[in-house]
TrEMBL record:
InterPro entries: AAA+_ATPase, ABC_carbohydrate_import_ATPase, ABC_transporter-like_ATP-bd, ABC_transporter-like_CS, P-loop_NTPase. It is found in: Cell membrane. Gene3D superfamilies: P-loop containing nucleotide triphosphate hydrolases (3.40.50.300). Keywords: ATP-binding, Cell membrane, Membrane, Nucleotide-binding, Repeat, Sugar transport, Translocase, Transport. It comes from Rhizobium setariae. It holds the Pfam family ABC_tran. SMART domains: AAA (SM00382). It is a peripheral membrane protein. This is Sugar ABC transporter ATP-binding protein. Belongs to the ABC transporter superfamily. Residues 8-243, 254-497 form the ABC transporter domain. GO terms for cellular component: plasma membrane. GO terms for molecular function: ATP binding; ATP hydrolysis activity.
Length: 499
């Protein structure tokens, strides 16, 4: 039941860090029984504003009211006492505990001073059922997929009966089917009167789930509007201060002969009998629901996981990569899904990260040739418009989009014939998405073959020349560009399509 009563008022919030003004006079009102989206590019101030709401940061200026009463929070515990719960993009769970223990972490039920495990498991099962999942509450969390762990994180917040819940990119690791389940849960929470703040780069999701949307840019509030009166194009224009006429531009490229050929590839566990090829100058999409085997296929091609059957050919020659080094020698590069965990070395500079795959060629007599490494990093920082354009800056201080550009630069320095991109625009803002696809467009125009794994169907439909859809470890016959539609892809991904 939608309420006109404000759950939250943040008035004229400013936040000053040494040398940086992160927020400048931001005001936000969120009502009980509504979903209020906050959108903006990376660096717009969304995370800082939410850290102030949670009590992690204190504002330099401004005030906060919860249900009409002014409050001051000195730490996250104060925010939780006020009924504020955060669901972060980075999971905040304990892998070695069970699902039930994670859901009630810090709030485990007791009986006569002892943990009441039966009650905890029953309550966790109830919460998970309401979320529409079939996750076993007794299962060890670390044994679940990333998407299942994300649902457990949401269940943890939901189980605390919040008055205000903040979700930061909650669908970043979920398939469209799983996101649909989440949206059903959010609507239930909204109808129960909970105020929901929803942060996402996926503008179509915002239009689908939100009642109102606030746009931030450069630490300032640009506008708040009802979602019923705004379009994705409007939001992009407000977010970036310019028109982005085509978020996923389709590059023109001459498609040549096969670079990668995969025939009846299997790993005996996640996928079987997978066959497709990728040609020079072509972008082939590999899509399907989370858990369908897409990433496992990519990892097998790159030598990161085992293969039990099948053949891989690069430019007509049979190869059998047993390690990434083998794959790189064959001309294969792989940009992984987990940018922070697998794509970068956070403690190193942009220069050091870009030079990693070709460190041998940059080394003489056991010493790295700094001048060559600096020249390489400057070249790619300029070519890919990495901001700030300082190769000596620690890569972890860059925005997600600029980190991803650096990861692309790192692998392109190795001059691959095949580039595998696993969710290349996940968790980056709309401007960076456009930049990344422009870079990919340049690469295919130069003759590089691209295999792109993506869960975003608009992205797949816009940029791919052909699409391979996976369902439960099996790959359908590739769809040609003129055959593509969201309905056909989803039918194949859910096992309902017929070829």
């Amino acid at each position: 039941m939608t309420s006109s009563r404000p759950a939250l008022r943040m008035r004229d919030i400013s936040k000053q860090f040494p040398g940086v003004r992160a927020l400048s006079g931001v005001s936000l009102t969120v009502r009980f029984g509504t979903v209020h989206a906050i959108v903006g590019e990376n660096g717009a101030g969304k995370s800082t504003l939410m850290k102030i709401l949670s009590g992690t940061y204190q504002p330099t200026a401004g005030s906060i009211e919860i249900d009409g009463a002014e409050v001051r929070m000195h730490n996250p515990a104060d925010g939780q006492k006020l009924g504020i719960r955060m669901v972060h993009q980075e999971l905040n769970l304990v892998p070695d505990l069970t699902v039930a223990e994670n859901v009630f972490l810090g709030r485990m039920p007791t009986r006569r001073g002892m943990l009441d495990r039966g009650e905890m498991v029953r309550n966790a099962a109830r919460v998970l059922k309401e979320l529409g999942t079939v996750i076993d509450p007794n299962c060890r969390l670390g044994d679940l997929t990333i998407s299942q762990q994300q649902l457990v994180e949401i269940a943890k917040a939901y189980a605390a009966a919040p008055r205000i819940i903040v979700l930061d990119e909650p669908t970043s690791s979920l398939s469209e089917h799983e996101a649909g389940i989440l949206f059903g849960v959010l609507r239930k929470m909204r109808d129960a009167g909970i105020a929901i703040i929803y942060i996402s780069h996926r503008l179509r999701e915002v239009l689908d789930i939100a009642d109102e949307v606030t746009v931030l840019r450069d630490g300032a509030m640009i506008e708040t509007r009802p979602v019923a009166g705004i379009t994705a194009a409007d939001m992009i224009r407000l977010m970036v201060g310019r028109d982005v006429s085509d978020l996923f531009p389709k590059a023109e490229a001459v498609i040549g002969s096969p670079v990668l050929e995969v025939e009846n590839l299997s790993d005996g566990e996640h996928f079987a009998g997978v066959s497709f090829d990728v040609r020079a100058g072509e972008i082939v999409g590999l899509t399907g629901l989370v858990g369908a085997g897409r990433t496992e296929v990519a990892r097998a091609i790159f030598g990161l996981s085992k293969r039990t059957a099948g053949t891989i050919r690069m430019r007509g020659q049979t190869v059998a990569p047993k390690s990434p080094a083998d794959a790189m020698r064959a001309g294969i590069a792989y940009v992984p899904e987990d940018r922070k965990g697998d794509g970068i070395v956070p403690g190193m500079s942009v220069r050091e990260n870009i030079g990693l795959p070709i460190i041998r060629s940059l080394t003489r007599m056991g010493w790295i040739k700094d001048s060559d490494e600096k020249q390489l990093a400057k070249h790619y920082a300029k070519r890919f418009s990495i901001v700030p354009p300082d190769p000596e800056r620690r890569i972890s201080t860059l925005s997600g989009g600029n980190q991803q550009k650096a990861v692309l630069a790192k692998w392109l320095a190795a001059k691959p014939a095949l580039l595998i991109l696993d969710e290349p625009t996940r968790g980056v803002d709309v401007g960076a998405k456009s930049d990344i696809h422009a870079i990919v467009g340049e690469l295919v125009a130069e003759g590089i073959a691209v295999l792109m794994i993506s869960s975003e169907l608009p992205e797949v439909l816009a940029v791919c020349d052909r699409v391979v859809v996976m369902h439960e470890g099996n790959a359908a016959k590739p769809l040609m560009r003129d055959e593509l539609s969201e309905e056909k892809i989803m039918a194949l991904a859910t096992g309902e399509g017929v070829q």
